[in-house]
Structures are given as structure tokens and as C-alpha cells.
Design a protein that fits this description.
The complex is a heterodimer of chains A (313) and B (307). Chain A has 313 residues and is α+β, with helices and mostly antiparallel strands. Chain A contains nine helices and 17 strands. In chain A, the strands form four sheets. A six-stranded mixed beta sheet of chain A has the order 6-7-8-3-9-10, sandwiched between helices. Chain A has a five-stranded antiparallel beta sheet with strand order 13-17-14-15-16. In chain A, strands 2-1-4-5 form a four-stranded antiparallel beta sheet, with helices on one face. In chain A, a hairpin with a 2-residue loop joins strand 14 and strand 15 (272-279). The longest helix of chain A is centred in the middle third of the chain and has 18 residues, at 165-182. Chain A is elongated and about 75 Å long. Chain B has 307 residues and is mainly α. Chain B has two domains: 18-83, no CATH class; 91-305, MetI-like fold. Chain B is built from 13 helices and no strands. Chain B has helices at 9-12, 20-60, 72-90, 93-126, 132-139, 141-144, 147-158, 172-197, 201-208, 213-242, 245-248, 260-269, 273-305. Chain B is flat. Classes of the chains: A alpha+beta (313), B mainly alpha (307). The A-B interface holds A 49-51, 71-74, 76-78, 80, 82, 84-88, 97-98, 101-102, 129-131, 142, 145-146, 148-149 and B 199, 201-202, 204-212, 215, 219-220, 223-224, 301, 304-307.
Amino acid sequence: MSISLSHLTKRYGDDAVVDDVNVEIPEGSLTAVLGPSGSGKSTLLKLIAGLEIPDEGRVVIEGDDVTDVDPRHRDIGFCFQHYAPFRHMNVARNIGFGLRVRKQPKDVIDAKVAELIELVRLEGKSKSYPAQLSGGERQRMALARALAIEPRVLLLDEPFGALDAQVRAELRQWVKELHRQIKVTTILVTHDQDEAMEVADQLLIMHEGRIEQAGEPTELYERPATEFVHEFLGPTTIFKGASIRPHDLELVRSSEGAMEGTVQSIMELGFEVQVTVALSDGSTPWVQMSRNEFRAFEVATNSPISVRERVAK
Amino acid sequence: MDTPARRPSSELGAPPARKGWRRFSRRLRTSFGLYGGASLIVGYLSIIVLIPIAAVAAHGFSFSIHTQGWGAAFWHWHLSAGFGIFWHDITQPAAISAIRLSLWLSLSVAAINAVMGVAIAWVLVRDQFPGKWFLEAFIDLPFALPTIVVGVVLLFLYGTASPIKVDLFETWMGLLVALLFVTLPFSVRAVQPVLASLDGESEAAAKSLGAGGIRTFLWVVLPSLWPAVLGGFGLAFARAIGEFGSISLIAGGIGRTTTASSYIYNLTQGFLWTNAAAVSTALLVLSLLILITTNVFARRIQRRLAS
């Protein structure tokens, strides 16, 4: 195990922001810590980096107990939410910062910086200042700066939070690809479940300072251990008094084994269509289906229709 | 449709002429937007600063209009004679030594307080301790106190009858202490807001990359502070070179501790108005040079930092 946290607790006053967290993070994994804002996920990351000091518990990285080790000796690459660029240094000097601190010879630094600039695709920008870069470029520079010290662990705090949707989607794929190349154990913090499901091979769901569930994304999606995980990982709707995924419901013409009702509203989102049905018991579940499935029904608002749980084929 | 007047005139030709008052008021409003702010500032400065300064400078160059008619000869004579008198006045041995003393004292004071200003601002921004509010208020004391009061206090503390047995009367050390005191708020207050506006993220990033406290300060924090430090340096220097009240008592009145400002005062006591104006003009030029230099450097750094 690359990182193991035991009984990790951090309190601000009487509030436990991180509350008795026990977790093992496998070597070389790309783990996403997912949770709503205020769930303690960023604090957890800072505890691992040593930027916050835990009230209780231990942090062990590759077998070394680093709980009492100063952050600068932990060999951890940390990317901040707002990238924390050194604004008075150009891209090359930003990236080489950790190596200069380590008193590496100049030619070694230059070679390493050139290699990283290529890796994060900032060719031609090495003399630019952070103020002259776009958000995505700044983020990549921050990544290269963290990677320059060849860290044992890479920690990313909401790495895509401040970017627009397009750049965000590109950068996600890119980070995933980068991780495949360099294989450094990586933890990223996010509040976006799509992002977490897409990028990570391991998920940690945090809620009110505690780990609700840990495991592979599909496993968590299909077998959520708690109601919170179920609700947080994807859309839910209420059918026959139970919480269910809207894509596990289907519309049917016949009322056999189904509940009758009328179509209340239809929302077409390109490939996906969401149909909300007012049922005879007064509930209004919504059904998620593909555009083709929807076309087959020829329903409109106020059409009579029935809803049942989708039968596995 | 857009009003044609809003488009660049090159595209559509000149905008159609508007009649009378509307056109006039529109012109007035537009030009006020462009030049109004600037002309307001220049006008105000002219009345309270530029005209008096010009008068002093003119007096220093002995520009007074008499005799000999108008024409090339008039200007030639007056300019050369004026400059000759000016040069003669400011190259008196007493004048040179006074200006030299003011210059190196002011530079030292500005430099020492640039360092101390950063240190004090750091403590005020980053540390919490009992009595901090008092220290905050105390920093501004030199702004509020009449400088002659500072002079009296310093004479009492460091004069010949010093209760702490430190006699700085009639020494450059006494002048230095007085000037350090009166210029400190400039240095501290210039740096403090900039330091407070820094988020801790860059410092945390430096730490996670392996930098210790001193290196983080020198490589990451200080470069962001340079424009503010330079600004404080310029203000402290300008204040120090013009300071009179706080140093007039502890200086005593002997030649060795006569600063440029005291020298000017002494000249006016002897009704040597032209000499006084000449030395004043020299001081003015020096102060302006330092202010402009620090401003240029500060702007150059600031431009790079701006995002």
C-alpha cells in the first residue's frame, strides 16, 4: 500500500472536519476523493501533504510514518485549486523551483524542465509568465512543477474546478493519460461525480468528515453501502416508496405489473430524454431513456402511460 | 440599429452633424470622460503645488524681469545669469555639505526602514499577540504628532541630559534616530496591505516543493512585495529629505549636523531669499528624481506580476 491513513482526525474547535479516517490507497492508483463541499476532502489532502497537522492518527507513505515530518521533506507533489503559481517567475523557473531548492546542477535542472515542458505540452511557453497563460496552461504548469521533484505521491486539490467545461473535459482525459504514462500514486479531490467516475480507478466517498465507502467506481455505483453513496453517485428518483435510479425504470403501454399515470413533463437533452410521470398513488418519478426508446412511444404531455422497473434482458 | 455616431468614423464617414446644444453638451461630456479627470488633477495640483514650486524655482534662478527690453539678448542674459547665480548658491561649501548630509541620511533611513517596515508589517499581518491593536495605532503616531514634539521628546531622551545615558546631541546618530521615527509609518503602511492580500497558497506550494522558511520568504514572498517596498522607500526618502521639525532641536545648530532643510531655514533667517530658493530647488529636484526612479521600477515589476 502506498498511502495508509489510520484514525486520522482533524478538528477546528469542536468540529471534526476529518473524523477517524482509516483508508489504504494502493500503489500506482488514481484515487478520487469525492464528496459535497464541506465534507472534509480538501482537509484530508492537506493532512496527507502535511500542510495541516492532524489532531489524532497517523499518515504512512510507502511504509514511512510521515505524521511528524515537515511537508518539505515528504516528497509530495501538491497542486492547488488555484494553481498557486509563482507569479514573478516564468514557466521554466516555476517548474524548476523544486530542483533549485534541492541544489541540483544547472544542466540537470534544464534537462528536466525541458522534458516536463514537453510532457505537459507547454512548448514555446517556457519564457512566459503565469499572467500570460490561460487557466488550463497554468494548471499544467502547476502539474509539471509538482512532478519535477519526482514525488512519491501526487495530490490534486479540485484540479479542474476553475476551468470552463470544454477545457475541463480535455484536461480530465489528459490527466488520465498522463497517469497511465508515469504511474505515480495520485489522489485527486473533486465534488463532481462524473469527473470522479471518469478519471479515477478508485473512489473514496466522503461525507461529514468520514469515509462513507471506498472501492472501484462501478462497484460503488452498483452496490452503494449507504443511502448517501447511492444518492451522491448518480441521479435517483422515488418509485413505490423506494429510491431508485431513473434508468432502472421504463415506460410501458400496458398496465400489467406496472403503475398507471399520465405524462407530466418531457425534457429532451440530446441523446437522453427525461420523462416525469404523475402516478395514481400521487408520486412523480422520472424515467431516463435514450432518444430512440422515447421515439417509440409517441407520448406527449398528459398522455396516459404506465411505469415499471426495467426488467433485465 | 446602432446610432451611427457610435461607430468609428472611418467606417461610415463623419457622423451626421448634430445641432446646437445637444451636440455641444455631448462633446463636453465625451471630452470630460477623456480629459476631465486628468485636467481636474492637473488643475488642483497647479494651484496647490506646481505654481508655488515654480515660483520658488524661478526665484532660485533669479528670474525677475527688469530692464534691457525683450528679445534674444534678454533671454540669453537672464538665463545664463540666472543659472550662474543658482549654481553659485548651491555650490557653497556649506550648501554642499548640508545637501550631502541630507542625501545620505535620507537614503540610509529609507533603506533601514524598508527592511524594518517589511519585518513590522509581517508581524502585524501574520502574528497574533496581546496588545497588537496598540502597536497598530503606535505605528501611525508619527503621522499625527507635530514633528517639533518629536524633536522635543528626542532631545529629552537622547540630549545631553539623557535619562538613559545615551547622548546623541549634535550627532548624525541623533538625526538618524529622529528620521527613522518619522518615516517608519510610510514603510510599514506601504507593505502591510500587500502582505495581507497574499494568499498562503504560493507559500504552501513552495513548502511542499521543499523550500524552508527563509528560502520561501526570499524566493516567493519578497518578490511580490518589491513594488510596495520600493513605494515605501520613495515616500520615506522624500519625507526624510524634507524633514525639519523633528531634527532641528537634536541637531543643535552646528555645521556638522546642519541638514539641507535646516540650512534653508538658516538662510531665510538671514534674509538670503535667493540662496534659500536655490537650495530648495535642488532638494526638490533630488526628491523628484528618487520618487520617479522608485515609481518606474515598481511599475516595471508590477506589470509582470499583474494577471
